[in-house]
C-alpha cells in the first residue's frame, strides 16, 4: 500500500522479507486452488469446444444468433434501467422535497410512503405491481413497448425513488446551515431557498450516489429472471441460450462478464465524479453521503 | 384478507423459514466478509489482490447471476446440494463483498495519527491494534455494516423467489398459483412479513448505532 496504513508500521527489512514470503505462499495456495478448479472443469468436459464455440468461434452456426440474442437482451436491460432511473429521479426529487418542505402533519403520509417502499424487498415490490395491476385491470397498453417492461419499470421506480429522495435529503442536510439561513435572511421564501440555493448544491453532492444507484438498478432488472415476468432482458436471454445449448457455465460466465464490465465502469465513473467534485469545491461536502451510498449499493 | 387469515400458520412457517435463511446468511456473510476484509488490508500483496478481485467481481454481478451459477453451474461440476443450501451460499458470497467494504471503510476512518500516537507512547503492535485502532474501527463499522445486512434481509426474498421452498415468498407463490387465491391479499401478507423483518431490524440498528456512536 502506498499510503500509510493505520494498522501497520512502515515495514523494516525483516517485515518486508516476511511479507514477500507470505505473498509467495499465498500465490502458491491460489494457484493450487485454481488448478483444482481447472482440473475439475476439464474432468467434466467444460472446456469442450462444442460448449464454447457458440460464444467464441465466429464460424460456429450459432455464433451470430447467440450474440444477436444477447445484444437484444442487453438493449432491453439498458432500456429498463434508463427508464427506471430517470423516472425514479423525477419522483424521488418530488418526494424528497415534499418530505423536507411540508408541515409536520402533511409530511406524515410522505414519510410513511418512503419507509414502506424502503423496507420492502424490491423483488416483492415488482411482483406486487405486476400482479396487482393485472388483477385490478389497470392497462399499461397505451404506454409504448412491452407491458412487462412497464411492470418492471414501475416496480423499480417505486423502490429507487424513495432511495433517491433519501439521498437528496442527505445531500441537503450535508450543506452548511448558513446556506439556508443566509438565503432566508436576504428575503427568499422557503420555496425559493430550496429551489435556487439548496437543491442545486445538493444535486452536485448527490451525483456520485446517483451513478452508484444506477448500478443497483441495472442489477435489479435481472430480477425478472427469478419471478417469471416475461421481459426478455440480458439474464433471461442468457438463460434461454444456456438451456438451448446446454452450457450453463459458459453462457452465465459471458452474461456475468457483461454485467461486471458495465457496472465496474459505472462505479469507476462515480468515483471519478466524486473526486472531481471534491477538488472543485475544495470542501468535505461529499462526506455526508458515504454511508448512504454504501448502504444502497447493497440493495 | 381472508386468504391470509385462513393461512396464518403457513405464513408463520414461511416467516420462520425466511428468518433461517437470514440467520445463516448473517453469520456466514460476516465471517466470509471479515476474512476478505482481512485479506484486503493485509501486508501480503497477493492476498490484497485476491480480496479486491473478489469484491470487484461479486459486487458488480447481480445476485440473481450468483444464484444461477450456484444452482445451474455447480451441478455441472458434480457439486449437488439442495436449493436451500445453494441459495444461502449464494447470498453469503454476494453479501460478503459488501461486508468487506463496510469493514474496510471502518478501518480507514481511523486516522493514522491514532496509531502513531499509540506507538509514540510505547504501546506494542498488539496493544495498538486491540486498544486503540480496532475499538474505533468497529464503532465506525456499525452503521454501514447494519445497512448492508438489512439489504441482505431484503435480498433473502430473491433467494426465496429463486425457489428455496417454504419461505415467505414461496408461501405467496404457493397460495396464488397452486391454490388460486387472488394476488393482492396474499402478496400484502407476504409484504407485511418482510416489512416486520426489515423495520424491526432498522429499529434495532438505530438503537445499536446510538449506543456505539462516538463524538468526533
Automatic annotation (TrEMBL), chain A:
Chain intervals for the UniProt region annotation (Disordered): 280-299
Ordered alphabetically, the record's keywords are:
Cell membrane, Membrane, Transmembrane, Transmembrane helix, Transport
Q: Which residues form the ABC transmembrane type-1 domain?
A: 74-270
SUPFAM superfamilies linked:
MetI-like
- List where in the cell it is found: Cell membrane
Q: What is this protein called?
A: Amino acid ABC transporter permease
Which superkingdom is the protein from? Bacteria
How the protein sits in the membrane?
A: Multi-pass membrane protein
Which family is this protein grouped under? Belongs to the binding-protein-dependent transport system permease family.
Transmembrane segments annotated in the record for this chain: 21-42, 74-98, 110-133, 148-168, 205-229, 249-266
UniProtKB/TrEMBL annotation, chain B:
Which membrane topology term applies here? Multi-pass membrane protein
> Where, by residue number, does the polypeptide cross the bilayer?
20-41, 53-75, 81-100, 120-138, 183-208
**InterPro entries, per database record:** AA_ABC_transptr_permease_3TM (IPR010065), ArtM/GltK/GlnP/TcyL/YhdX-like (IPR043429), MetI-like (IPR000515), MetI-like_sf (IPR035906)
- Look up keyword Membrane and say if it applies: yes
Query: Sorted alphabetically, which keywords does the UniProt record give?
Result: Amino-acid transport, Cell membrane, Membrane, Transmembrane, Transmembrane helix, Transport
Q: Where in the cell is it found?
A: Cell membrane
UniProt cross-references to PROSITE patterns, sorted A to Z: ABC_TM1 (PS50928)
Per the database record, which ranges form the ABC transmembrane type-1 domain?
15-205
Q: Does the keyword Transmembrane helix apply?
A: yes
**PANTHER family according to UniProt:** AMINO-ACID ABC TRANSPORTER PERMEASE PROTEIN YHDX-RELATED, MEMBRANE COMPONENT OF AMINO ACID ABC TRANSPORTER
Family indicated by similarity: Belongs to the binding-protein-dependent transport system permease family. HisMQ subfamily.
Per its record, how is this protein called by name? Amino acid ABC transporter permease
Please name the source species. Answer: Nocardioides furvisabuli
Amino acid at each position: 500500500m502506498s499510503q500509510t496504513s493505520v494498522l501497520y508500521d512502515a515495514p523494516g527489512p525483516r517485515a518486508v522479507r516476511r511479507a514477500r514470503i507470505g505473498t509467495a505462499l499465498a500465490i502458491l495456495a491460489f494457484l493450487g486452488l485454481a488448478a483444482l478448479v481447472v482440473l475439475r472443469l476439464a474432468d467434466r468436459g467444460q472446456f469442450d469446444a462444442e460448449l464454447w464455440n457458440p460464444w467464441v468461434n465466429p464460424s460456429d452456426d450459432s455464433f451470430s444468433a447467440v450474440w444477436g440474442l444477447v445484444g437484444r437482451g442487453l438493449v432491453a436491460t439498458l432500456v429498463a434501467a434508463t427508464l427506471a432511473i430517470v423516472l425514479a429521479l423525477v419522483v424521488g426529487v418530488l418526494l424528497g422535497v415534499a418530505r423536507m418542505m411540508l408541515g409536520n402533519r402533511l409530511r406524515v403520509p410522505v414519510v410513511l410512503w418512503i419507509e414502506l417502499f424502503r423496507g420492502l424487498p424490491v423483488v416483492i415490490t415488482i411482483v406486487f405491481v405486476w400482479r396487482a395491476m393485472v388483477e385490478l385491470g389497470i392497462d399499461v397498453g397505451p404506454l409504448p413497448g412491452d407491458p412487462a417492461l412497464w411492470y418492471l419499470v414501475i416496480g423499480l421506480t417505486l423502490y429507487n425513488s424513495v432511495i433517491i429522495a433519501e439521498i437528496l435529503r442527505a445531500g441537503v442536510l450535508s450543506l452548511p446551515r448558513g446556506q439556508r439561513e443566509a438565503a432566508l435572511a436576504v428575503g427568499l421564501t422557503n420555496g425559493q431557498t430550496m429551489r435556487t440555493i439548496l437543491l442545486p448544491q445538493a444535486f452536485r453532492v448527490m451525483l456520485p450516489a446517483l451513478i452508484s444507484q444506477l448500478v443497483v438498478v441495472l442489477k435489479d432488472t435481472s430480477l425478472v429472471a427469478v419471478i417469471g415476468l416475461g421481459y426478455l432482458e440480458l439474464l433471461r436471454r442468457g438463460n434461454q441460450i444456456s438451456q438451448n445449448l446446454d452450457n450453463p457455465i459458459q453462457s452465465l460466465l459471458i452474461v456475468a462478464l457483461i454485467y461486471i464490465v458495465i457496472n465496474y465502469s459505472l462505479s469507476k465513473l462515480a468515483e471519478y465524479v466524486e473526486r472531481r467534485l471534491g477538488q472543485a469545491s475544495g470542501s468535505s461536502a461529499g462526506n455526508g453521503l458515504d454511508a448512504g451510498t454504501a448502504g444502497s449499493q447493497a440493495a | 384478507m381472508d386468504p391470509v387469515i385462513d393461512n396464518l400458520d403457513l405464513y408463520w412457517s414461511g416467516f420462520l423459514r425466511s428468518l433461517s435463511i437470514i440467520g445463516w446468511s448473517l453469520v456466514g456473510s460476516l465471517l466470509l466478509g471479515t476474512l476478505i476484509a482481512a485479506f484486503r488490508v493485509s501486508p501480503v500483496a497477493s492476498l490484497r489482490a485476491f480480496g479486491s478481485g473478489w469484491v470487484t467481481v461479486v459486487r458488480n454481478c447481480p445476485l440473481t447471476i450468483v444464484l444461477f451459477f450456484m444452482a445451474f453451474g455447480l451441478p455441472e461440476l458434480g457439486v449437488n446440494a439442495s436449493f436451500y443450501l445453494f441459495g444461502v451460499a449464494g447470498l453469503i458470497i454476494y453479501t460478503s463483498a459488501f461486508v468487506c467494504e463496510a469493514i474496510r471503510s471502518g478501518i480507514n476512518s481511523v486516522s493514522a495519527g491514532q496509531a502513531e500516537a499509540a506507538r509514540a507512547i510505547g504501546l506494542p503492535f498488539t496493544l495498538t491494534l486491540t486498544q486503540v485502532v480496532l475499538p474505533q474501527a468497529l464503532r465506525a463499522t456499525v452503521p454501514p455494516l447494519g445497512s448492508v445486512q438489512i439489504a441482505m434481509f431484503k435480498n433473502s426474498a430473491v433467494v426465496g423467489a429463486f425457489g428455496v421452498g417454504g419461505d415467505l415468498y414461496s408461501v405467496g407463490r404457493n397460495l396464488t398459483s397452486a391454490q388460486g387465491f387472488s394476488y393482492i391479499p396474499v402478496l400484502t401478507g407476504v409484504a407485511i412479513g418482510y416489512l416486520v423483518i426489515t423495520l424491526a431490524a432498522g429499529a434495532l440498528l438505530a438503537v445499536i448505532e446510538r449506543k456505539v456512536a462516538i463524538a468526533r
